[in-house]
Amino acid sequence: MTAPTINTAHHEPWLVWVHDTAYGQMMRDVTWMFPTFQAVHLIGMTLLVGVIAVIDLRVLGFAKGLPLAALHRLIPWALFGFAINVLTGCGFFAAEPYSFAAVPAFRFKMLLLALAGLNALWFWISVYPHVEEWGPGDSTPVLAKSLSLISLCLWVSVIFAGRFIAFGGTGTL
Amino acid sequence: MSILEAIQNTGFADWMRVSEWGYPIILTLHSIGLAMVVGVLFVIDLRILGVPRSLPILPLRQLMTLVWLGFVLNLITGLCLFSADAVKFFESPTFRFKLASVFAGVGLAVFLSSSVLGVGDKFDRREAVIPARAKVFASLSLLMWLAAICLGRYVAYE
Questions:
Q1: Which residues in chain B are closer than 8 Å to A55, comparing Cβ atoms?
Q2: Neighboring chain B residues of A71 at a CB cutoff of 8 Å
Q3: How far apart are CA A165 and CA A111, in angstroms?
Q4: pTM above 0.80?
Q5: Does residue A1 sit within a domain?
Q6: What does the CA dihedral B31, A170, A44, A108 come to, rounded to 10 degrees?
Q7: Per-residue pLDDT in tens (0 to 9) along chain B, 158 residues
Q8: Interface contact A164-B27, CB threshold 8 A
Q9: What per-residue string of b and e applies to A102-111 under the rule 16 or more CB within 10 Å gives b?
């Protein structure tokens, strides 16, 4: 029996396709693009996480004078930040798809993002229909508080995992 | 030997450079602090600019606690990161511009917090409208933080 060998020259066809796209090529060839996209990715992150964190903290009872319905008007800004980060994130991945796909921190970040998405969906279905009821000073039920706490923990973890992709072997900064 | 050289020759600076977890964890905490400072100020500045109008201004004052908490976190983690390569950072124009943006951003936050959020009930009761000057400062605040984020990222590539 011989030990299984890892063929480093062979990559999944879809990764090769991603690598060869014009987007990937541009991210590798234009030197200012990668750092600039990282800056924009951080700006998108502050939009997304900033708005979500303020809403979550209000649900948890911090700054109770803020009515939740008015805070939810900020959701489009969070979605805008998310859209920016999907776009820039795809750029990083397309630049180095083989290393990104292999780095555990990247896979973990994608898992955390999926969980944060499901959590947000649950919040949207079960809590969002009641936001009009929670005006200044009103407390929220336990389910809303639990989902908000989970949301805060997940987003902080997403930032951690994201930052660790660079230290986990992609060779990026 | 200059002060900067002395800083980057300390045992702590050495640990920042060689330890497996030191630098990554400190840099990640710097990102968390960034999200707290800029994320919350983004909500506050946007409200001063009128979005969303249904959001009362006075209770936003409480969110400033988060901003200052994030700022202290980033001051501490920032000093740690600085120590690892003090001479390079100090001499980098990009880093100096970043610091200038942060100082301007902090100054604007202090001013807007006291002159708008602190008297927010006046605006919430429709007894006064937010002055145009405050809106200009809120826009400048957003601009300063966006600049600080970009310059901070570029410093890493120098």
A1: none
A2: 55
A3: 13
A4: yes
A5: no
A6: -80
A7: 699 999 999 999 999 999 989 999 999 999 999 999 999 999 999 999 999 999 999 999 999 999 999 999 999 999 999 999 999 999 999 999 999 999 999 999 999 999 999 999 999 999 999 999 999 999 999 999 999 999 999 999 98
A8: no
A9: ebebbebbee
Write the CB contacts of B109 (distance below 8 Å, at least 6 apart in sequence): B41, B64, B67, B141
Enter the tokens of residue B5: 């050289």
Which residue on chain B is closest to A74 by alpha carbon?
B52
What is the tens place of the pLDDT at every residue in A29-40? Answer: 999 999 999 999
Q: What is the pLDDT of residues A92-111, one digit of tens each?
A: 999 999 999 999 999 999 99
Asked whether the beta carbons of residue B56 and residue A70 sit closer than 8 angstroms, the reply is yes
Dig out the tokens for A65 from the structure. 């004078």
Contacts of B19 in chain A (CB under 8 A): none
Q: Which of A60, A154, A115 has the alpha carbon at shortest distance from B66?
A: A60
What range defines the domain where residue A41 resides?
14-165
Q: Which residue has the tokens 């030997």?
A: B1
The whole-angstrom distance between residue B125's C-alpha and the CA centroid of its chain comes to 31
Q: Is residue A3 part of a domain?
A: no
Contacts of residue B40, Cβ cutoff 8 Å, sequence gap at least 6 = A50, A53, A54, B63, B64, B66, B67, B70
Report the sign of the C-alpha dihedral through residues B126, B127, B133, B138, in that order. negative
- A56 contact partners, CB below 8 Å, separation of at least 6: A148, A149, A151, A152
| Size of the A and B interface in Cβ pairs below 8 Å | 102
Residue A4 lies in a domain: no
The one-letter code for the residue type at A154 is: L
Whether residue A170 lies inside any domain: the answer is no
Q: How many domains does chain A have?
A: 1
What tokens were used for A19? Answer: 């690598």
Which residue does chain A place closest to B70, by CA atoms? Answer: A50
